[in-house]
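Hi L.,

You mentioned the student needs an example of a multi-chain input paired with its predicted structure. This one should do, with 463 residues in total across all chains.
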Amino acid sequence: MSVLESLENYLLTEIAVGLGKKTLGPDEDLLELGIIDSLGLMKLISFMEEDFGIRIPDEEVIPENFQSLNCMAKLVELQVQN
Amino acid sequence: MDFSLTEDQVTFKKSAIEFAEKALNKGAKEREKNREFNQEGWEKCAEFGVQGLSMPEKYGGLGMDIMTCVVTMEALGYACRDSGLLFAINSHIWTCESPILKFGSEYQKDTYLPSLCNGSLKGGHAMTEADSGSDAFSMKCRAEKKGDRYVINGTKMFITNAPIADLLLVFAVTDPKKGFAGVSAFIVEKGFPGFSVGKPLELMGLKTSPIGEVVLQDCEVPEENLLGKEGAGGAIFNSEMEWERSCLFATHVGAMAKDLEDCIRHVNERQQFGKPIGKNQAVSHKIAEMHVRLELSRLALYKVAWLKSQGKRAPVESAIAKLFVSESYVQNCMEALQIHGAYGYSTEMDFEKNLRDAIAGKIYSGTSEIQKNIIASLLGL
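Structure written out for the whole complex:
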């Protein structure tokens, strides 16, 4: 499973439960849609760190890194490189 | 996991206890009665290094690791009878100094950290509003970029240190469409145009800690005082809270240890019906339960400190620690008061004051209910 698919799968099954979403577009604005709230973000970060074996510094927890699946995938890629 | 303290930590803990006993307790009863902040105590703490405990030496701090910070706070909680002062200092450290160190630009760190470390500046943060407490990110306070500055409008409520603070980290919405991700943090000095502070609020406890309202009316903040990037407010706030929930609550563990010692002494000395009251199981079981709560509280906090010292996140663990310590402290205060009977209820002793102060711990830094929400949510609920 690609990073993008893995993130989408996690968001749909753990974060966006009950919102009636079956898919998420790679550039869909998840913050404006209210899919990720502050507690959801904490869960998401824990998932990303565990699943991809990365560490996301608090300084990187900013909207442009979590706005969409593509943004998150880029963040993962960057942290894997680091 | 290894929670054993190093020799240096044990020595520093002892010196913090000696310092607090000698320098911070004189006149504590009177200050509590008069709701008076202990400015002299603040300065003495700064001389000892408390305000700069966790800060790098280049800014005038002691550069201590988190376990040493927790142990030092435990020592101060044990020996200092002025919990309002400790509350003010912890807010200063964890909600102002630490986020500036972690998220600040070099300019911000050089400008503010040395004076925050030596205590000549006092800080805090301004998050809560009249209509947004637990739902903190639903704040109404807005910040709008205008040229090279932000203009902030809004009112903050129950802000620790507000009446004495020289600067506050003010959280405000910069992008209303993005919910919590549209919140940013600003370093606001008390002299900035449009910044004002109301009178200290009267609360049930923590009477020596000045807490008040902050009004931002077209408050102009230079763009270089934005902390982190726009939208980083949520990350800054969550990071602050993880630290505060471990280090601030270490003072409660210290206070619980002191109360337990006092209770054990009392139940051994106090004779009723021809024997020490501690010989009654109704009393000795209370003591045993107090000890269990104290030990488990300490372990919960040390686990958070250990995780953070390993560079790991501890959102669930810090929520567990905050919840358990704050609830345990209230329970232990109730038991200590009951064990001391009418003396415990009297204002001559500290037990009723401790209880009033302890209750606040179930509310600030996220209520007990919010901690349960965090724990449940991170368990997948």
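You could point out the following to them. The two ends of chain A are 22 Å apart (CA to CA). Chain A has one domain: 3-81.

Best wishes,
N.
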